[in-house]
Design goal:
The structure is a homodimer. Helix content of chain A is about 25%, strand content about 30%. By secondary structure, chain A is an alpha/beta fold. In chain A, α6 (about 215-225) runs parallel beside α7. Residues about 105-120 of chain A have low confidence and may be disordered. At the A-B interface, β2, β3, β5, β8 and α5 of A face β2, β3, β5, β8 and α5 of B.
Chain lengths: ~280, ~280
């Protein structure tokens, strides 16, 4: 039984007039950034700052990744109204001990973050990942899929992209002013689609997360919460991200661009094909 | 009357072993990332995730930018103990209505964020900035100072840098896994130094903030809170950052690299010298 969702629309970029170094006027696009206050059963929980592409999935994924809602069937509806910047969530049976569970705060790391509740950290130890693995050819396919995506999403700059793939097939690409929003949006979408990455058979194509941003503790934890054991980034990793990924046996791959990458953790999930690492010959050379 | 601060030390990088695309082992450095739980008068307030270079200034600046403490003389001591990841703050007279003032939460935008209390947004309208301005030559001096700094701070990657300058003179450069931490650390240092940027005379060299990350609402607000009217970034701006900077008359300059930049807001604070914008001749050409 899926929740009813609105499909609130709002422009994702805005034209602004700027002056360049010659003092000449230019009109450029900047990404939108909207405040979205989440109410659960009329109780105000949090204000998210978001680009606003998929606010309903974002709210669902936020509730999921905060572990405030255990199953999507607990949610009756998500109603987003951009006029007032509100997302009204109705649950079927209320949320147990909501006061207590939203009390502690952790301000998480740097680039593309947000706030996660303290209980989240306690839960990491209990997460179990599927036996997913990836070969180097498929990893290169992931990077190629993202390279093509790059060329379209950069019009306004200053956003992060996150993607969910199955093998090298792109399932969903989400951009937001914050990576934590992008990954929460993917989590919400997976819930609506009924995708359970943790239960995917080991012999099928694995689920892979891609992010343009750093592999922070929050990114690693959220991936694990969604049962995705392979995370790829164009950027690097932080110590806490590294440590938690090691504890979980989650495969983190960073500095991934063209045919280069570094595998930071979970190396047993990656099947090297070093022949592929050699750069292809230059056409016509 | 300044607070007593510990000077807690901890390594800023950690060596980790990774595998590259050939399957070859490399040892690389990644930035440290530590949890630091802040207790004020024995009451737990928040857990910050930080690189850990200057935890005492970070905590002071966090208290300042959250507007939990109005004057540094209200703080008796900050005691950081990395063994347990704690920062114990003692105030001289307690903090009024601390329960109420830490109740609402805003999860702020994307890259380099954190959590600010809801009251922060309400306060923006009341901020007043000094009549500071900058000429293009000094702006280029800022970029040159930061370019030199860049070459040293990148050993481990995945950190953001923030700096406070006076004209093009670098006063303090701070890096952290989160920009919000870096700017809070600068705020704490300014407090300890007794620097009041808002009260600086208009005919002196202006205070300038530099950040490697995006000009988000949080960055703009924190700059304004510290009385710094000129903010420069290598990166772009978000809509909320743009809007608030416009409201405050704060000068935001982004995409600033070498001799190029874009002025997004507060253009009356920048004195163009377009002759300087022409790239210098290539040596030997």
């Amino acid at each position: 039984m899926l929740p009813r969702l609105t499909t609130a629309q709002a422009p994702l970029t805005r034209d602004v007039e700027v002056l360049d170094e010659h003092g000449a006027v230019q009109t450029i696009q900047i990404p939108a950034e909207r405040n979205l206050t989440v109410y659960v059963d009329k109780r105000e929980l949090v204000t998210l700052m978001t680009l606003g592409a998929h606010p309903e999935w974002l709210v669902l994924g936020w509730l999921r990744n905060q572990r405030l809602v255990a199953g999507i069937d607990e949610v009756e509806s998500v109603t987003v109204d951009w006029e007032v910047g509100s997302a009204a969530v109705r649950t079927r049976r209320g949320i147990d001990r909501i006061e207590e569970r939203t009390a502690r705060r952790v301000v998480t790391t740097g680039c593309g973050q947000g706030s996660v509740f303290g209980a989240l950290m306690d839960e990491v130890a209990g997460l179990r990942l599927p036996a997913a693995s990836l070969d180097q050819a498929t990893l290169y396919g992931v990077l190629e899929a993202m390279r093509k995506q790059d060329s379209t999403y950069k019009s306004a700059g200053s956003v992060h992209g996150c993607a969910l793939l199955r093998g090298s097939e792109l399932l969903l690409f989400v951009e937001d002013v914050g990576r934590h929003n992008a990954i929460d949006t993917i989590a919400g979408w997976m819930w609506m689609q009924g995708i359970d990455a943790a239960a995917a058979p080991a012999d099928g194509a694995p689920y892979v997360f891609y992010t343009t941003g750093r592999l922070t503790s929050e990114m690693v934890i959220k991936s694990a919460q969604m049962g995705v054991a392979l995370v790829v980034s164009r950027s690097g990793i932080t110590q806490m991200g590294h440590q938690i990924a090691n504890e979980l046996g989650l495969c983190t791959i960073g500095r991934a661009l063209n045919r280069r990458f570094l595998c930071y953790s979970g190396r047993e999930r990656l099947r090297w094909q070093p022949d592929l690492a050699v750069p292809p010959p230059v056409p016509g050379a």
